[in-house]
Amino acid sequence: MAADRTAEGAVATATAAATGAAAPRRRPLQPHGRATPYLLAAPALLLYGAFLLFPLARAVQYSLYDFDGLTVGTFVGLDNYVAVVADEGLRQAFGHALVLVLFFSVIPVVVGLALAALLTRAPVRGLPAFRTVVFLPQVIAMVVVAVAWRRIYAPDGPLNTALRAVGLDGLARTWLGDFGTALPAVGLIGTWVSTGLATVLLMAGMARVPRELYEASSLDGAGPVRQLVAITLPSVRPEMAVALVLTTITALKTFDLVYVTTGGGPGTSTTVPSYEVYRRAFELGQVGSAAAVGVVLTVLVLLVTVVVTRVVDPSRRDER
Amino acid sequence: MSAPTTSRPASPAAAGPARGPSRGSLAQRLVASAVLLVAAAAALGPVLVVLAAALGPESPAAGGGLHPENFAAAWEQGRFGEYLQTSALVAVVVVTVATVASVLSGYAFGTMDFRGREVLFLLVLLGIMVPAEAVVVPLFFDLRTLGLTDTIWGIALPQIAQSIAFGTFWMRAHFRTTDRSLMEAARLDGAGPVRILVSVLVPVARPAITTLVLLSFLWTWNDFLVPLVMAPSAQLRTAPLGLALFQGQYTQGTALLAAGAVLVALPVVVVYLLLQRHVIRGMVEGAVRG
């Protein structure tokens, strides 16, 4: 504390002397020493730079090399990126990620819209408790979520037990081990996690809409559907954009869920880009290729953020 | 519980009770209540499935009834006590360092003019969006060269950087909206920048800082990829990692695995239930501002 202040005092004095000499006119006191903001931001920027920004630059560098993690790699230019497009396994992985976007993002936002619209328009008791409960999946570690759902999907798990109980024995199967159902089964877990977030976000948006708008439109003879389309949807655009961006990003970089539930299988039916990054770098020793997949994933995330935000919520364009 | 204490408008997500129940017909309210119950049950279902499995018999020989001793067994045999300790240590290091650094940098970015501010802040924003998947590969090789893999720091430093990206953004947004006259008054009284921060701004920013601490705790505790990659010898395991590897090794022990899952989730669930307003508001506001 004392040391800090001495340093600042010295800086302030130096600055005052400098400005005093240069500008004889009376000017507002320099509010802080010139170095102060840099000193304050330094710990954050150094840690951030060293352990996030620098590794990101290194990832780009790695992605241009054929590097196995052991020997010095050879520069291959954009070959790793060409491979991302040409490699059928990788194309599949990105395709799976798109399917997951449907489950993690599109379905939760649609369900969330319906839930939020219903709950805001016909107020019921217990909304705060409801909010707490539906948001709960969002705070539990994905690994725990995965363990829970593996139990649900197990051959003797609750899902199959329930199907057999109602006589649908034919539908019972090993959901995560079946080529046809593994990916949707993983996706449904994402739906479970994301729906609460989407609902809570959209409820927050709808709470902002003035009641009078609905009352006025009722007088004009507008029904509930008409009101949803004409009043509610346009009003919650910012929240919808946020919900879509957050859940899409979660879908694109799903790693722990896939790692714990299916390990990418059966076969390669549930492999996703983030899993490929891990597998290539730490199991197959294709570090350059892994880095390229990671960089492509980063670009995708940035694109989704910008595009979804601008398309769904054009008002944001003016910000910053 | 917590009244809106900042100058920011209270978030609608945390807004008060629903408007009077006079709106809507009885039928409408019945449908809404039914939907509410179904949605809540769907959200709770999987949580209850794990709880039930954790309290169930480990083997058919153990007999029926509740088996709370599974938790003790998971703690000892499953080594979850050890994993939870590692997680707690990592969380304390990450949250402490990231919060202090973020408050300092958020103060600089939010209240001071300096050359390069815009560019530096854009770089920080970039960090919020970069997925860990992209940086974890070079991080592993560089930290291994430095001898930091398989140490607490190998796990903590990358997570500190991620928390700082969000934290700087979050604290800047908060400090930008703080009343300038407070700072002016302190300055006239002869307070330096650090003094202004510590005695004037931080007390006012308590709710924002609490939210930041909570969110970075949740993210750090729940993270999987960084601990998986940075501790390759698997000697040092955080709780989620221990759970994943436990599942791989003991395919039989459903009850112990479920008990372990409950132990891993318990700290965040307790914190969440106690402070859910802060968590929900933080996520919603943080997201909307981004």
Automatic annotation (TrEMBL), chain A:
Regarding protein family, the annotation reads: Belongs to the binding-protein-dependent transport system permease family.
Residues annotated as domain ABC transmembrane type-1: 94-308
- Entry keywords, A to Z: Cell membrane, Membrane, Transmembrane, Transmembrane helix, Transport
Organism equals Pseudokineococcus lusitanus
Residues spanning the membrane: 35-57, 97-118, 130-149, 182-204, 290-312
* InterPro entries, alphabetized: MetI-like, MetI-like_sf, UgpAE/MalFG_permease
Q: Which GO terms describe its cellular component?
A: plasma membrane
Annotated GO biological process: transmembrane transport
- PANTHER family, sorted: BLL4140 PROTEIN, DIACETYLCHITOBIOSE UPTAKE SYSTEM PERMEASE PROTEIN DASB
What this protein is called in its record is: Carbohydrate ABC transporter membrane protein 1 (CUT1 family)
Question: Looking at the keywords, is Lipid metabolism present?
Answer: no
Q: Where is the signal peptide?
A: none
Q: Which PROSITE patterns match?
A: ABC_TM1
Membrane topology type, per the record?
A: Multi-pass membrane protein
- Main location per the UniProt record: membrane
According to the entry, what is the taxonomic lineage of the organism? Bacteria, Bacillati, Actinomycetota, Actinomycetes, Kineosporiales
Where found, per UniProt? Cell membrane
Report the superkingdom from the record. Answer: Bacteria
Automatic annotation (TrEMBL), chain B:
Which of UniProt's keywords are assigned here?
Cell membrane, Membrane, Transmembrane, Transmembrane helix, Transport
* UniProt keyword Magnesium, yes or no: no
* Membrane topology of the entry: Multi-pass membrane protein
- UniProt region (Disordered), positions on chain: 1-22
Q: Which domain of life is it from?
A: Bacteria
Q: Which SUPFAM superfamilies match?
A: MetI-like
Q: Which Pfam families match?
A: BPD_transp_1
Any transmembrane segments, and where? 30-55, 88-107, 119-141, 153-175, 196-221, 255-275
Query: CDD domains attached here?
Result: TM_PBP2
Q: Where in the cell is it found?
A: Cell membrane
Pull one GO CC term from this UniProt entry: plasma membrane
One GO biological process this protein is involved in is: transmembrane transport
What PANTHER family does this protein map onto?
ABC TRANSPORTER PERMEASE PROTEIN MG189-RELATED, ABC TRANSPORTER PERMEASE PROTEIN MG189-RELATED-RELATED
Q: What is this protein called?
A: Carbohydrate ABC transporter membrane protein 2 (CUT1 family)
